């Protein structure tokens, strides 16, 4: 079954992340329509995409058209819930870029929408091979029981960075700016490998006005699997670093996303070289499987809500100077 897709939002994600992936999946998808904030951007995207791509002046017009079977949302985060809801009302399946919403409270509303057309939250980190292999390694027990983790992430986003230059990111309506925008990626991978986060004790700072919100965070976490750990991130750092380590009873594994390697320290030292993937083609392929009736386990709203709630718990903890249980956000919402 080839699915006709309508692209909503002709910005960086659609042009540089989704389009290359969809060009690898022409047996599964065809881009037939585009809508964006301005007609000029939509027309530019249609030209880049090639083929017979219809430009729509409104999202509602696209949803009510027979030109598309499903829509791809790559819009400002705060707009996600209302646009997902509109797609559900129009009985159009939707794949939407993460985070699912600006806050956990807004995200939870999506769990209770009437109807059953698929809603798929496009979290590509759940599809990246190095993280999937790390999950298998841990769950097979090869290194014994996991005890603790450390994730250090420095991101060299200067004022000229293309994401920083995005207007809606300069005055973010979503919690924590880049801390949630990028942080849900890492939490998705963390949860897939080690399980759900239960409590967060956080610290955060806003060091640079140009990043719009908090740009530095340290989150100390406890997980349901009796694992403890630390996630530390700085946006606007002078250099980049992405170091993720898991300590187990019988060894340590270093997970390197950028190099797609797992370095294992146990009775023997071993380095595994995996395929370098960004996960976008894989997530669209999985979306297609869901459209054909497969259970949505990797792109569900429930998973996206947990990712966002984990980050929000850390940000609340930093503000209120208390330990925050992740499930308290789910109950309050």
From TrEMBL:
<dbReference type="GO" id="GO:0000166">
    <property type="term" value="F:nucleotide binding"/>
</dbReference>
<dbReference type="GO" id="GO:0005737">
    <property type="term" value="C:cytoplasm"/>
</dbReference>
<dbReference type="Pfam" id="PF22725">
    <property type="entry name" value="GFO_IDH_MocA_C3"/>
</dbReference>
<dbReference type="Pfam" id="PF01408">
    <property type="entry name" value="GFO_IDH_MocA"/>
</dbReference>
<dbReference type="GO" id="GO:0016491">
    <property type="term" value="F:oxidoreductase activity"/>
</dbReference>
<dbReference type="InterPro" id="IPR000683">
    <property type="entry name" value="Gfo/Idh/MocA-like_OxRdtase_N"/>
</dbReference>
<dbReference type="GO" id="GO:0006740">
    <property type="term" value="P:NADPH regeneration"/>
</dbReference>
<dbReference type="InterPro" id="IPR036291">
    <property type="entry name" value="NAD(P)-bd_dom_sf"/>
</dbReference>
<protein>
    <submittedName>
        <fullName>Putative dehydrogenase</fullName>
    </submittedName>
</protein>
<dbReference type="InterPro" id="IPR055170">
    <property type="entry name" value="GFO_IDH_MocA-like_dom"/>
</dbReference>
<feature type="domain" description="Gfo/Idh/MocA-like oxidoreductase N-terminal">
    <location>
        <begin position="4"/>
        <end position="113"/>
    </location>
</feature>
<feature type="domain" description="GFO/IDH/MocA-like oxidoreductase">
    <location>
        <begin position="131"/>
        <end position="253"/>
    </location>
</feature>
């Amino acid at each position: 079954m080839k699915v006709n897709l309508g692209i909503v939002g002709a910005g960086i994600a659609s042009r540089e992340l989704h389009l290359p992936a969809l060009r690898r999946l022409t047996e599964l998808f065809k881009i037939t329509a585009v809508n964006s904030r301005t007609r000029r951007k939509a027309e530019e995207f249609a030209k880049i995409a090639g083929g017979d791509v219809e430009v729509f002046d409104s999202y509602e017009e696209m949803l009510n058209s027979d030109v598309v079977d499903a829509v791809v949302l790559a819009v400002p985060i705060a707009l996600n819930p209302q646009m997902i809801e509109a797609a559900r009302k129009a009985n159009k399946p939707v794949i939407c870029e993460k985070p699912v919403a600006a806050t956990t409270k807004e995200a939870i509303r999506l769990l209770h929408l009437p109807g059953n057309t698929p809603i798929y939250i496009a979290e590509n980190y759940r599809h990246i091979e190095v993280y999937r292999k790390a999950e298998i390694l841990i769950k097979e027990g090869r290194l014994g029981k996991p005890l603790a983790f450390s994730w250090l992430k420095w991101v060299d986003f200067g004022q000229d960075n293309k994401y920083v230059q995005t207007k809606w990111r300069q005055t973010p309506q979503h919690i924590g700016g880049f801390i949630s925008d990028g942080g849900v990626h890492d939490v998705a991978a963390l949860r897939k490998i080690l399980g759900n986060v239960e409590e967060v004790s956080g610290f955060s700072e806003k060091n640079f006005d140009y990043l719009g919100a908090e740009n530095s965070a340290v989150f100390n976490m406890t997980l349901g699997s009796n694992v403890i750990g630390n996630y530390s991130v700085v946006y606007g750092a002078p250099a980049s670093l992405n170091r993720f380590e898991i300590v187990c009873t019988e060894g340590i594994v270093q997970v390197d996303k950028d190099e797609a390697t797992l370095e294992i320290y146990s009775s023997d030292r071993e380095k595994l070289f995996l395929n370098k993937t960004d996960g976008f083609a894989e997530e669209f392929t999985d979306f297609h499987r869901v459209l054909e009736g497969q259970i949505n386990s990797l792109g569900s709203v429930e998973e996206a809500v947990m990712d966002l709630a984990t980050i929000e718990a850390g940000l609340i903890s930093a503000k209120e100077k208390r330990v925050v249980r992740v499930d308290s956000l789910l109950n309050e919402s």
